[in-house]
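user: Here is a favour to ask of a fellow structure person. I have my own habits and do not want them to colour yours. Could you put it straight underneath, so I can go through it closely?

assistant:
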Amino acid sequence: MIVYHGTTIEIPHPDVSFSKKYLDFGRGFYLTTYQKQAEK
């Protein structure tokens, strides 16, 4: 499965401690299967 994140660098070990708990879906590392969505 190929997933995308809104960044231009590879993140081999995501660290959710940097995320904000008041995001749309709470704390986490958000990914999408849609490349265009990640590019936005």
